Amino acid sequence: MYQALYRKYRPKVFSDVVGRDAITAVLRGQVKSGRVSHAYLFCGMRGSGKTTCAKILAKAVNCLSPVNGDPCGECEACRAIDSGLTLDIVEMDAASNNGVNEVRDMIEQLTYTPSELRMRVYIIDEVHMLTAAAFNALLKTLEEPPAHVMFILATTEVHKLPATIVSRCQRYDFDRIPMDDIVRRLRFIADSENISCDDDALYVMAKLSSGALRDAIGYLELCAASGRHLDEKTVSSLLGTSSYDTLLSIADAVSAKDVAASFRALDDAYSRVNDIAVLWFELVSLFRDLLVLKATGSGKYTDATPSQITRLSGMSGRFNREKLMYTIRTMEDAIYLMQRTPSQKRVIADMCVIRLCDEKLNTGADALASRIAALEDNMTMLSAGVAPSPAPKSEPAAVPAEKPAEKVIAQAPPKTAMRISRKFADIASKLSDADPSAASWLSSAQGYECDNGTYRITFSNAFALGIAKQSKSDIDRAVITVTGKYTPDTVILADAGNDKNYELIDDVIEALQEET
């Protein structure tokens, strides 16, 4: 009968557990010295080795001839546990057996000595699912169980456990397994199963697993079923993710501020992914790697493969830190909107790309910082005698033939100067304290102090503006309280794209523009 790979290759001894050297060293030492605890708490994310270590520990404390703290796997006790027929190793799923009656039944059985083994071990998985009454029933027994009983509790949400339960256990935290360790384990399994695959393909599986080895092995098993040689593109296609070439092509188009090239790359990606939001998460991860590479000068802290790091290094010179931070923030805002309005995902994605290619369409602080950084880079290039690349120019608006251009300009109303409000962060904080949901629509807003005596708050999307208008009275109070001036009539909410009669004046931008 076929057995899933994650079960077939589940470690039998502590030395085979991947990425848990510190934890297994302690557990092996306790078994070797005979100083094992009566209750353990293993907490961490799914697929991180909690149940595996629990089963090995249960077998090690009952092994008749342990080898350096590991179960021998050959004695009568080890064979009985491996067969799954012994009644002295009890695995309990608290997700489906979480009531006080189940716990009381278990406690009643504790008085009986083990039928075959030295110790009776209770492995309670997802223990946080127990009810409050069940925890109370377990509490005293967990503190002082019979000498022949051991508890091993496992949970993915330790914060849901009562402090009284946690304090009675020896706690071990299972964090994410490093990607290199996952890749090495996948390579071992692939070679053992004669699965033909490239290392880059294994890195794709490891990255997608987010540190959960069981998930990564599941991806390997799924892809291997195709019967094809597994390379990066094949695995990306089978798992419904974008290839790295596609992601790099989008990033390359954004760096060149080429809207047309960006849309071509996106259109190709849309046909390959199951969900646009998944593509956006992958792009955020890529830009995050670029930012880390730019900030540290090393690919050590990225989730990229060695070949991908080489390609990222070549691209990192096209971005400054401010541009990368603006890009990541804008894409995160787009992901939030995709989750709120899933029927408009493509529209949101297209709008996001246009904003990435032209920061002037976004009035937020990140966009402003990116524009200032670009001007500083141009100044540096000019001082070095290198001509900066010209910024892309938008096509001028068509002027009707029957009206001379001079008349159109003469009829245009004078623009009102406005400056970015340094107090808007305090205003936003005050609104968020009063209504936590306000943070969602404030993320696309920016405040300005105008020469005509008004305080103008602009929003980069109409959806956020519509929500803000419903809270106009709260916004008025926050502006008046923080600034100490203005009235409800002089606090204006507007669409950033419609502020044609206002001109943003910023001393830093003006000074930089004069020098460049």
Structure report:
The protein folds into four domains: 5-174, Rossmann fold, CATH 3.40.50.300; 179-238, Orthogonal Bundle (Helicase, Ruva Protein, domain 3); 244-357, Zinc Finger, Delta Prime, domain 3 (Up-down Bundle), CATH 1.20.272; 415-515, GMP Synthetase, Chain A, domain 3 (2-Layer Sandwich). The chain is 52% helix and 10% strand. It contains 24 helices and ten strands. It has helices at residues 5-8, 21-33, 50-60, 76-83, 100-109, 132-143, 163-166, 179-192, 199-209, 213-224, 232-238, 244-255, 259-270, 276-296, 306-316, 321-340, 345-357, 365-383, 405-411, 424-434, 438-442, 462-469, 472-483, 507-515; strands spanning 39-44, 89-93, 120-125, 149-155, 170-174, 416-420, 445-450, 455-459, 491-495, 502-504. It has a five-stranded parallel sheet, covered by helices on one side. Helix 13 (259-270) packs antiparallel against helix 17 (345-357) and helix 18 packs parallel to helix 24 (507-515). Residues 391-410 and 510-516 have low confidence and may be disordered.
